[in-house]
Specification:
The structure holds two protein chains of two kinds.
Chain A lengths: L1 H39 L3 H21 L3 H26 L14 H23 L13 H8 L4 H22 L3
Helix pairs in contact in A: 1-2, 2-3
Chain B lengths: L2 H21 L3 H26 L3 H31 L13
Helix pairs in contact in B: 1-2, 2-3
The chains are: A mainly alpha, B mainly alpha.
Chain lengths: 180, 99
């Protein structure tokens, strides 16, 4: 009976793994295409919208990995706040919104070469080290309560330092951007 | 699910971000590409957290998100200041400190 139950659970898990894999590959494909469009498009506002797609896909990846609080923060902070900030940056620094030819350097192939070589090196290193490792099939969702317990006990000092850093960055941004 | 598929996804995003930083002239687009790079790092952190079954991966991803928010605030303020002084946010023209 126990063996039967265990077999059934493992079948269920395999099924869920399969579904999660399909979702992951769809999301990853969308994110990679959107990222490529973001770095090649000729329109700054379109680049911001493609970045939005990438950020939402990354949040979906966090959900697949069971990190629910990171996914929620990703949506709130990136999609909600940083996107608006970037669009304000586009609005404040440009006269016209639309197609623009002069967004890239002339020697793009050097950048392409560097990123391709970097990708080859990273692929080799990552596959060499973790090529056969799988995520534990009995992994569970990492609860927000555990994250909060961890932040406010083990990582309380980095957390306070981060609060101070945010305050300093905001004051610095105001001081730099203010007209005097 | 393999750990490697998340790491390779993050590597692809990272390299696209590096390409954007290296080829874009517009300051705001450079900042967007930096966001892409930081997100790739976050995917790695969360993936290793799930791999080990421990919390710190997610906690450090949250720290990186907060640092990214601070970075984009200061970065945009600098880009605005360059635009105000030079009437252009072309980063290849921002060479005031060049000797």
């Amino acid at each position: 009976m126990m063996a039967l139950l265990a077999a059934e659970t493992s079948v269920m898990t395999n099924n869920e793994e399969w579904v999660a894999n399909v979702f992951f590959y769809v999301i990853a494909a969308v994110a990679v295409v959107a990222a490529l469009r973001m770095v090649t498009t000729k329109n700054v506002v379109h680049a911001a919208l493609y970045l939005l797609v990438v950020l939402a896909s990354v949040a979906a990846t966090y959900i697949i990995l069971g990190a629910e609080f990171a996914a929620a923060s990703q949506l709130l902070v990136y999609v909600g706040a940083i996107m608006v900030l970037l669009l304000f940056g586009v609005m404040l620094t440009r006269a016209q919104i639309g197609h623009e030819d002069d967004l890239d350097h002339d020697q793009k192939w050097i950048g392409g070469l560097v990123s391709v070589v970097l990708f080859a090196v990273m692929t080799y290193a990552v596959t060499d080290q973790w090529g056969r490792q799988t995520l534990p099939s009995d992994r569970r969702v990492q609860r927000t309560q555990e994250v909060a317990d961890s932040i406010f006990s083990t990582y309380i000092v980095p957390f306070e330092a981060l609060s101070l850093l945010l305050l300093a960055a905001l004051i610095g941004a105001i001081v730099v951007a203010r007209r005097d | 699910m393999f750990l490697n598929q998340f790491l390779l996804f993050a590597a692809v995003l990272f390299c696209i971000g590096v390409y954007g930083v290296l080829t874009r002239k517009n300051g705001v687009l450079v900042l967007m590409s930096i966001e892409l790079i930081l997100n790739a790092v976050n995917i790695n952190l969360v993936a290793f957290g799930a791999f080990n079954g421990t919390i710190p991966g997610q906690v450090f991803a949250l720290f990186v998100i907060a640092v990214a928010a601070a970075e984009v605030g200061v970065g945009l303020a600098i880009v605005l200041l360059i635009y105000r002084n030079r009437r252009s946010i072309d980063v290849s023209e921002a060479n005031l400190l060049q000797g």
